[in-house]
Amino acid sequence: MTEALYMKDAYLKSWDAKVVSVKDDKFIVLDKTAFYPKGGGQPWDEGYIIKDGEKFKVVYVGKFSGDISHEIEKPGLKEGDLVSCEIDWQRRYTYMRYHTACHLVSNILYRKANAKITGNQIELDKARMDFSMEDYSPEKLSAFVEESNEVIKQNLPITIETMSRAAVLEEPELARLAIGLPKNLQEFRIVKIGDIDKQVDGGTHVNSLSEIGEIELTKTVNKGKSNRRLYFILK
Ligand SMILES: [Zn+2]
Asked: What is the CATH number of domain 3-87?
């Protein structure tokens, strides 16, 4: 199992590691990594793995049965190599801001309209959220986003906790993105926004709400029945 450094410290930008395995000259597993693997609507990190001053660009990161695999652009790394790593911080930080913003908006949608999130996708220049909502209007969504912006002004801290499976099951709203809890896990990582929001989550988040900036609703889509979609950007 790769040690996932981003789970404890989302602000870690560089670190040393050891190459554990190399497949097809380009798929690298490290003993520990802060490169975020694609998942939960958040794209993978890019950056460099560096050996003796030579830079290997990381173009994709994915999670495969507990290991985090980094795809590099050219061959040259071997098992046992000692390397240093650095993240494309601008890219990652943008995703952190969007990810925390998604949690905040989903919190407002859930509290005010009992809306359940069915999917979300973060990009560098926008985020998309899919949700179920009975009584829908673009004006309502606009008001919810404005409310989110008001909450940002409170500048609440974002903190990470661990909870047992039994405790999580007692609070079903913790897994708002209702895809069910992984069966083999007994402990879960909880991302909290102040005391207003708690979510089971493996993503990377900013430390405080003000880092999000301002959320601007750019598009709403009524996909029929109770399926809705919204897009927002961060200013
Ligand atoms: Zn999340």
From this structure: 2.40.30.130
- Each residue's pLDDT tens digit, 147-175: 999 999 999 999 999 999 888 888 877 86
Distance (Å) from CA 189 to ligand 1 centroid: 11
- Name the percent of the chain in helix, strand, coil, to the closest 5: 25, 40, 35
Spacing, Cα 51 to ligand 1 middle (Å): 33
How far is the centre of ligand 1, averaged over its atoms, from the C-alpha of 169 (Å)?
A: 18
At 118, the amino acid letter reads T
Q: How far apart are CA 206 and CA 104, in angstroms?
A: 12
Q: 76 alpha carbon to ligand 1 midpoint, in Å?
A: 35
pTM above 0.85, yes or no: yes
From ligand 1's centre to the CA of 98, what distance in Å?
10
Domain at 92-234, CATH homologous superfamily: Threonyl-trna Synthetase; Chain A, domain 2 (3.30.980.10)
